[in-house]
Structures are given as structure tokens and as C-alpha cells.
Prior knowledge:
Elements: H1 2-27, E1 30-41, E2 44-45, H2 57-68, E3 73-84, E4 90-92, E5 94-101, E6 104-111, E7 115-117, E8 122-133, H3 142-153, E9 161-173, E10 176-179, E11 184-190
Antiparallel strand pairs: 1-2, 1-3, 3-8, 4-7, 5-6, 5-9, 9-10, 9-11
Amino acid sequence: xxxxxxxxxxxxxxxxxxALSELSAFTQCExxxxxxxxxxxxxxxxSHKRSWRDFTLMEGQLIALYLLGSxxxxxMQVYVEARNPGNTTAAVKAIQWIxxxxxxxxxxxxxxxxxxxxxxxGRVVVPVSVHTDLIDFMEGDNPRxxxxxxxxxxxxxxxxxxxxxxxxxxxxxxxxxxxxPGYFTVTKEFRSGN
Length: 194
């Protein structure tokens, strides 16, 4: 029994060292916002809209109904590319994230699928589903920031906008979840007319 406990402890220690090594490699990875797809306002696909005139009468009525109900749901799929320049596989078990538009916190969530990035320049694209209700941010200067972002996505308007994604990875060692002490920040500028 004593040998079994010693072997189990040794395996747990090795597993912990391996997980910490993979987390350390993850902190050395290079991150960038790869792309955004499926932007939807009130369930309406806005990826091919280039101005507010592109919305049909029915779509305008749908948006008005949502506004009357004090809701303005906005969804999009954000893809973050991670590149591992190191010699060790980079891996994490989960990632917490916070999304900002022009310094306005608009959504947060968690990726629960493990992410593993091969060494020596290996690349992985991680999908992040962002769901938010824009009505929650209609105070102060927030409406202008959010409208600039939507207009930049539509390639209209005159203001540039910025999407910033903060990510915090975590690993599992035995039954314990260990979170990285800080956040990584990934930023993408959206320029109207581009």
C-alpha cells in the first residue's frame, strides 16, 4: 500500500510539472485576433450590411420590437490565433475571457474545451462566442462607442473602433484548477471603409 501511495504521489507530481510546463509555454505564445464572423444584431446577420439602408423594413421593425422590450442582443464569433514559438507544447484546460469595445466591457465568458498548441511555430485558431445585450451599455459615452463598433463592422461611419479581448488560462493538476495570475490582451482595430 505504501508503494502504491508513493507511486500515485510521484505520478501526480509529474503530471503537475507537465501541466505547469505547458502553461509556461502558453504564456510565451503569440496571440492575435484572427477574424470575426457571424455578427448578428437582434438575430439579423449584419455581415453583408454596408449601411443602415441595407436593413429591410421587417428587420427594422424587429430591431424596434427588441428596443421596446429593452433589449438589443448582439452576437459574434471571434477567432483568436495562437502561435507557439517555443520547444514545448503549450496547453491549457480552460480560458476565461473578457471582451471590450473601445474600453467598454461588453461581455465575458469561459472556454471549457482544452487548447493545445504544438511547438516550433505551431498555430491554433480558438473560437470565442461573444453574446451581449447592447442595451446594458447605453449610458454615458458607451452608446457612441458601441455604435462606432457596429458601424465599423458594417464598413460605414467615420470613426474607427477597437475590440480588445483579455484572456486568462487555467490548468488542472489532479483535482485542483490553477489559474494564471494575470490576463493576456489581444486587440484588433476596425477601420470604417476597410
